[in-house]
Design goal:
The chain is an alpha/beta fold. The chain has one domain: GTP cyclohydrolase II (Rossmann fold, 3-Layer(aba) Sandwich). It is 31% helix and 19% strand. It contains 8 helices and 7 strands, in the order αββββααβαααβαβα. The structure holds guanosine-5'-triphosphate (GTP) and zinc ion (ZN). The site of zinc ion has 5 residues, from helix 2. Keywords: GTP-binding, Hydrolase, Metal-binding, Nucleotide-binding, Riboflavin biosynthesis, Zinc. It holds the Pfam family GTP_cyclohydro2. It comes from Anaeromyxobacter dehalogenans (strain ATCC BAA-258 / DSM 21875 / 2CP-1).
């Protein structure tokens, strides 16, 4: 069965009364609370919903193949980006990273994408839009966060680590360019047995953003080696109506 459904369903039963000392400074503890099939454009997944004891954020895992109890499982940690993931914003590379992350897991034949509700690298949607406004005045992404009184990256991966332990992944190959994710997960006792690079070619609007990630935030991205990508290349889904611009 796609997604190792039975083993995942068992986790819901296992976690009914789960309570541990928690992970990280916030002592966050999560429970697997629901599992269902999720056919996607990228292929078949199962979606696993997690409850946590600290806030109302509903984190989920998309699981493909048999992963419970497995080693060297490809794992992508995706941080929520409403503007990119949902609206197709070209200011960042998040939507392409999400699509490519799911595709990579399908190619590998198994894997997990954790969709983490860490909008704006943990500062939230309103503050991310404030940061965008500052970037329009010439600040880069790091400077904008600092000007708002935040660290350049407020994300903590304790919840992700607990989710990985909750799925009983023995070791993971992390799909990322961000060494901080590997550092934090390792500190939370996740066995990171390898790294799979996750580089999206730059487009016109996000080139400076990607350069800033490489230059200032330590991401392992060699932009010079990448061919530029043509943006807005998503095929239209609905054909223009006759009589409208672009229509018959
Ligand atoms: N504060 C802030 N957050 C942003 C900005 N642009 C994108 N984000 C957020 O950045 C997060 C994605 O993180 P990235 O730094 O792109 O990538 P990463 O996940 O750290 O690294 P990889 O694993 O290599 O992809 C999402 O939560 C976005 O909402 C920005 O200009 N300012
Ligand atoms: Zn984004």
């Amino acid at each position: 069965m796609t997604g190792g459904g039975d083993a995942l369903a068992q986790l819901v039963l296992r976690d009914r009364d789960h309570e541990c000392e928690g992970f990280g400074p916030g002592r966050v503890c999560v429970r697997v609370v629901a599992v269902a099939r999720l056919p996607t454009r990228a292929g078949p997944f199962r979606i696993v919903a997690f409850w946590n004891n600290r806030d109302a954020k509903e984190h989920v895992a998309l699981v493909h193949g048999d992963v419970v109890g497995a080693a060297d499982v490809p794992v992508r940690l995706h941080s929520e980006c409403l503007t990119g993931d949902v609206m197709g914003s070209l200011r960042c590379d998040c939507r392409d990273q999400l699509t490519e992350g799911l595709a990579a897991i399908q190619r590998e034949g198994r894997g997990v994408l954790l969709y983490l509700r860490q909008e704006g690298r943990g500062i939230g949607l309103i503050n991310k839009i404030r940061a965008y406004a500052l970037q329009e005045q010439g600040l880069d992404t790091v400077e904008a966060n600092l000007a708002l009184g935040f660290r350049d990256d407020e994300r903590d991966y304790a919840v992700a680590a607990h989710m990985i332990h909750g799925l009983e992944l023995r070791s993971i190959r992390l799909i990322t360019n961000n060494p901080e994710k590997i550092r934090q997960l390792t500190a939370y006792r996740v066995d990171v047995s390898g790294r799979i690079p996750h580089v999206i070619p730059p487009g016109e609007h996000n080139r400076f953003y990607l350069e800033t990630k490489a230059r200032r935030s330590g991401h392992l991205i060699d932009l010079a080696a990448l061919e530029p990508r043509s943006e807005q290349a998503d095929p239209v889904v609905v054909a223009p109506a006759p009589g409208t611009p672009g229509g018959e």
